[in-house]
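PROTEIN DESIGN WORKSHEET
SECTION A - STRUCTURE
LENGTH: 252
C-ALPHA CELLS:
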C-alpha cells in the first residue's frame, strides 16, 4: 500500500515546543486529522484538508486516518503533547490490531512530542529528577479501583507521581479521591503542584502541600505533580519556590 500515516505530537501548546520533525511531517501531509482545538493550533497550507473530530471518538478517528492512508493519502493524525502518552498512537495500533489486515502494510510513523509532565516539570524546577510515574485519573477506559491501586503502589514505592486527566466536568470527584488515597500514605508536607495550561497564554502554576491541596483548583488542562518523600522546595524571595527531586536517595 502506498499511503502513509504519521501520528504527530504537537507539544503542550507553545509553537516553540513543537519539534522540527513534527512541523516537517505536518507540512508534508495531504490530510490532517485531530481533535478540533489541536487543529486550531495549526497553520495549514491551502492544499491541506483538515478533519476535526470530537475528543472522545479516538478509535473512530484512528480508523478514519487508516482508511484515508489506505486510499493513498499522506495523513497526519495529531495529539497534544506526546502522541504516545495517553494519546492517539495507542488508538491507532489498537485499530490496526483489530482491523483490516492490509493496514499492517501501511507506512506508519510515530513522531514524538513534549509531553505535559516534561513541560510542567521544566517550569517548576526539576521534580522528575528521580524515579517517577505517570497515571491518568480518567476512569473512562479503566476501573477506578485500578486507579486507586496504582496510586497506592506508586506512593508506597515513593515515586514522584504525575497525574494526567485529573478533572473534567464529567469527572469532578476523582482528584479528591486520589488525594485521599495518597494522604493515607505520604506525609502531609509532600509538595503538590498544579500546572495548568503550560506554555499557553493562560498558564497558571500553584504549589501546595498534600495537606492543603484543593482538588477544585484542577481542570482538564491541568497536570498535577505530587512529590516523593525526597522532593523539596527551595524558597525564593519574590517568586514561586523551585520544586526539585534530588538525584540521590540513600535509603528506602
Ligand atoms: N498526549 C498528551 C496527554 C493527553 S491526556 C501529552 O503527552 O501531554 C490530557 C491531559 O494532559 C490533560 O488533562 C492534562 O492533564 C495534560 N495536559 C495536556 N496539555 C497540558 C498543558 N499544556 N498543561 C498542563 N497539562 C496538560
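SECTION B - SEQUENCE
RESIDUE ASSIGNMENT:
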Amino acid at each position: 500500500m502506498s499511503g502513509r500515516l504519521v501520528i504527530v505530537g504537537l507539544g503542550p501548546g507553545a509553537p516553540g515546543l513543537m519539534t522540527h520533525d513534527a512541523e516537517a511531517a505536518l507540512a508534508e501531509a495531504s490530510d490532517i486529522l485531530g481533535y478540533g482545538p489541536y487543529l486550531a493550533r495549526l497553520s495549514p497550507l491551502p492544499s491541506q484538508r483538515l478533519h476535526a473530530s470530537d475528543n472522545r471518538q479516538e478509535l473512530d478517528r484512528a480508523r478514519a486516518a487508516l482508511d484515508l492512508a489506505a486510499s493513498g493519502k499522506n495523513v497526519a493524525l495529531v495529539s497534544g503533547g506526546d502522541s504516545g502518552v495517553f494519546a492517539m498512537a495507542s488508538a491507532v495500533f489498537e485499530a490496526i490490531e483489530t482491523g483490516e489486515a492490509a493496514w499492517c502494510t501501511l507506512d506508519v510513523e510515530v513522531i514524538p512530542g513534549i509531553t505535559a509532565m516534561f513541560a510542567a516539570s521544566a517550569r517548576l524546577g526539576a521534580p522528575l529528577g528521580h524515579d517517577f510515574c505517570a497515571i491518568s485519573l480518567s476512569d473512562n477506559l479503566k476501573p477506578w479501583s485500578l486507579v486507586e491501586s496504582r496510586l497506592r503502589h506508586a506512593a508506597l514505592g515513593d515515586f514522584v507521581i504525575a497525574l494526567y486527566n485529573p478533572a473534567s466536568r464529567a469527572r469532578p470527584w476523582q482528584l479528591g479521591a486520589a488525594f485521599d488515597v495518597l494522604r493515607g500514605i505520604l506525609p502531609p508536607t509532600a509538595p503538590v503542584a498544579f500546572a495548568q495550561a503550560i506554555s499557553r497564554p493562560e498558564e497558571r502554576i500553584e504549589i501546595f502541600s498534600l495537606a492543603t491541596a484543593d482538588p477544585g483548583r484542577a481542570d482538564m488542562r491541568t497536570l498535577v505533580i505530587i512529590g516523593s518523600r525526597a522532593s523539596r522546595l527551595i524558597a525564593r524571595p519574590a517568586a514561586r519556590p523551585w520544586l526539585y527531586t534530588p538525584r540521590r536517595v540513600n535509603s528506602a
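SECTION C - NOTES
The CA atoms of residues 130 and 155 lie 14 Å apart.
Residues 58-70 form the longest helix (13 residues).
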